Amino acid sequence: MRQEYPCIDIDIAKIIHNICEIKAICHNEHIDIGAVSKGVCAQKPIVEAFLKAGITQIADSRMKNLKKLQDLNCTKLLLRVPMLSEIDDVVQYSDISLNSEISTISKLAEAAARLNKIHNIILMVDVGDLREGVLIKDVMDTVEKILQMKHIHLFGLGTNVTCYGAVIPDKHNLGMLVKLKKDIEEKFSITVPIISGGNSSSLYMVINHTIPREINQLRIGEAIMLGRETSYGQLIPNCYKDAFIIKGQIVELKDKPTIPIGNIGVDAFGRKPHYEDKGIRKRAIVAIGRQDIKVDGLTPLDEDINIFGASSDHLILDVTDCKKKFTIGDVIEFNVDYGCLLIAMTSPYVKKYYKNEQAYSA
């Protein structure tokens, strides 16, 4: 079959392998995984791979993604704090949602009453990263109001770190959740089943056995896809980092100067670029650009290739030092970081190819 470019090759067997390795690590600490599908736009073959590997909870930030997963037998968790415009869909298509606003939770209760459902929520607590979450001082009052809502079940407490403020999870900030859980259970005589202790950035604590033992859920995306924890960017033992490979085709190959000729203004994205004079170099233009990928998230598999830059449609490479002599039509392959993966999987211009879809290595 003729392959279209640009494309991303997705190795299902490697994804399943990564899940199984991470599940085993988390199981040793009695932690369940909510597998995050937003980074791959909840593509069905990938989500089905999650389930093959024993995942029972799929987490996503987009209702559109959760809707298209409704035929799958798993718990659906909405990661992004709900918008008022999607309240009915949240109750209908997600089993659990993360929340931080009492007014929104009240609307969820009303929608749940109309649909004759009980909706589970995880109350997000801001432990310092300054993204979503109730401030520590307001948690008890918020819980008291939640418990008065008949169609809402306080399923757990959660937090998010690293994603905005780059705060690293540790015993202190995750310990705040543990203390709050104990205080809530004591004051209101209830059980709070879940403490959701963050995302792939918390995995380093699982690996080195320092995560508080009361943390029993993590929301894991990047570690599954790319095989690394995100606090320090370290590879997870025995995991693959190359389950996703971007491919682009060379459309021009010429020897050219490295300094543009003429007065330098701003580029198509409003930035004034800086150029280093390296003389005449062999430049390959690949038909992929900023509309398709995050350029600084690409790493060429050929270590002798350097990325000069990109426009919306073209990626410009220095291939002067490569051992291979490239020709027009040759394909260049790249590893990706999470931001690049997210954009590529969302882009309709990047073709998705799956291999080893029948694999299962649990």
UniProtKB/TrEMBL annotation:
SUPFAM superfamilies: PLP-binding barrel. It is an enzyme of class 5 (isomerase). It holds the Pfam family Ala_racemase_N. Keywords: Isomerase, Pyridoxal phosphate. Gene3D superfamilies: Alanine racemase. The keyword Isomerase applies. Residues 10-225 form the Alanine racemase N-terminal domain. Its EC number is 5.1.1.12. InterPro entries: Ala_racemase, Ala_racemase_N, PLP-binding_barrel. GO terms for molecular function: ornithine racemase activity. The keyword NAD does not apply. Its cofactor is pyridoxal 5'-phosphate. NCBIfam families: racem_Orr (NF040742). This is Ornithine racemase.
